[in-house]
From TrEMBL:
Name of the protein described by the UniProt record: Uncharacterized protein
Species this protein is from: Deinococcus ruber
């Protein structure tokens, strides 16, 4: 009997156009690093095989063939060359920051376009000149958000001052941590693919041109993570301790899965 178990394989919902996102967490980091706009993420699997051959009947035959050493790698290219966190993973060392001259907020002060103030460890650049109010505003805490004080508009530019100099020790080092890849669908109700690896090594692997822009290439090698337990609420693997997990997840549960995975991998990496 010839029975097809997936007769709906050709339906439109099974055909997706998926984006690319990549996140990395290393031990002790303040959070996950987003690798920005990715040109490509290419997996490759290599293995060393053990083969037993013999000649019992006048012809050499293969009696057993197994994969002895299986290695999964990813090559990823990003255009986020100006991001300090991404470049730190590329080089293998964090930046030594030499900040410029950013001052604290001053009330009733005439601010010019481009000036920078610092508050709570974050930097805010003047994007509309004018005179500030007497007291400081409630500062945003997300890059790109704006706040108005009197006639001045400040834009949050993150935790690194725009005029800072970043110095890296060019060691071409290797960094270990956890990695999450997300292939996200733009279609309403679409399916997304999430690949999670709690123990990887990442290193810089080249500086390609990406659509006429500069780029950075990374080589990611998946390592054993025998002590990691994936969140059971999204798939109970029992006593198995996989070194990587692939999920097919609908839009409605994507955020919950990423939150649970991020927490589990962070806990594993910090304890290693």
């Amino acid at each position: 009997m010839f029975t097809i178990v997936n007769s709906d394989v050709t339906k439109a919902a099974n055909i997706q156009t998926l984006g690319r996102k990549m996140y990395m967490y290393s031990k002790g980091a303040a959070g996950w690093t987003d690798f920005g706009v990715l040109e490509s993420v290419t997996p490759a699997r290599a293995n060393t095989r053990l083969t037993l051959k013999g000649n019992r009947t006048g012809k050499t035959e293969t009696f057993k063939d197994i994969a002895d050493d299986d290695t999964l790698t990813f090559t990823a290219q990003t255009s986020a060359t100006g991001d300090a966190a991404v470049r730190a993973y590329y080089i293998g060392s964090a930046a030594i920051v030499s900040p410029g001259t950013s001052a604290a907020f001053a009330g009733t002060n005439a601010y010019t376009l481009g000036q920078v103030v610092v508050a709570g460890g974050r930097y805010y650049q003047v994007t509309a000149a004018g005179t500030s109010a007497a007291s400081a505003p409630t500062w945003p805490t997300t890059a790109g958000q704006t706040v108005t004080s009197g006639g001045v508009t400040f834009t949050d530019v993150g935790t690194t001052a725009p005029e800072s100099i970043l110095a890296y020790q060019d060691t071409t080092g290797v960094t270990e941590g956890g990695m999450i890849f997300v292939r996200e669908s733009a279609e309403a109700g679409g399916l997304n693919i999430v690949r999670a690896y709690p123990h990887v090594q990442i290193q810089g692997n080249g500086e390609p041109d990406i659509q006429s822009f500069n780029g950075l290439e990374f080589l990611i090698t998946v390592l054993s993570a025998s002590g990691f337990t994936p969140p059971a609420s999204f798939g109970d693997f029992g006593t198995n301790k996989p070194s990587g997990v692939v999920y097919q997840v609908p839009d409605s549960r994507l955020d919950a899965l990423l939150t649970a995975l991020g927490t589990a991998i962070k806990t594993f990496v910090d304890a290693s």
